[in-house]
Amino acid sequence: MKKIIIPQDIKAVLEKEECFLNRSDMRVFTTSDNEEALALHRTEKADLIIAKLDTPKMNGEALCSLIRNDKKLCRVSILIVCSGTKSETEQ
């Protein structure tokens, strides 16, 4: 079974459409922020993490860096999404 960590609000958008999250071989965990996603990944060892670029406590770049620099956590695919604001797309 594949494990996916995804922000609550993004999951809500994806659930409106037929999507890969509806497959029976997926276990989806929702989080409120990137810090929670990191903590959850430490316990669940996800196959995919979908994270937000700009969040107050820990941004997506910091999350990705922490995961990639940890030998126990680095074997995961990460998608970082942004809202599309000019400041986020220029980074």
What report would you give on this structure?
It is a single chain. It is built from 4 helices and 4 strands. With 91 residues, it is α/β, with parallel strands linked by helices. Strands 2-1-3-4 form a 4-stranded parallel β-sheet. 35% of the residues lie in helices and 24% in strands. The model has no long low-confidence stretch (mean pLDDT 86).
What tags apply to this protein structure?
91 residues, alpha/beta, four-stranded parallel sheet
**Tally of strands:** 4
Strand order of the largest sheet: 2-1-3-4
The best one-word shape is globular
Give the structural class: alpha/beta
Which sequence of SSEs, written as H and E, runs from N to C?
EHEHEHEH
Mean pLDDT: 86
Instruction: Give me the number of helical elements.
Output: 4
Spans of at least 5 consecutive residues with low confidence: none
Oligomer: single chain
Radius of gyration: 13 Å
Sheet of most strands: 4 strands, parallel
C-alpha end-to-end distance: 35 Å
Q: Strand fraction band?
A: 15-25%
Helix content: 25-40%
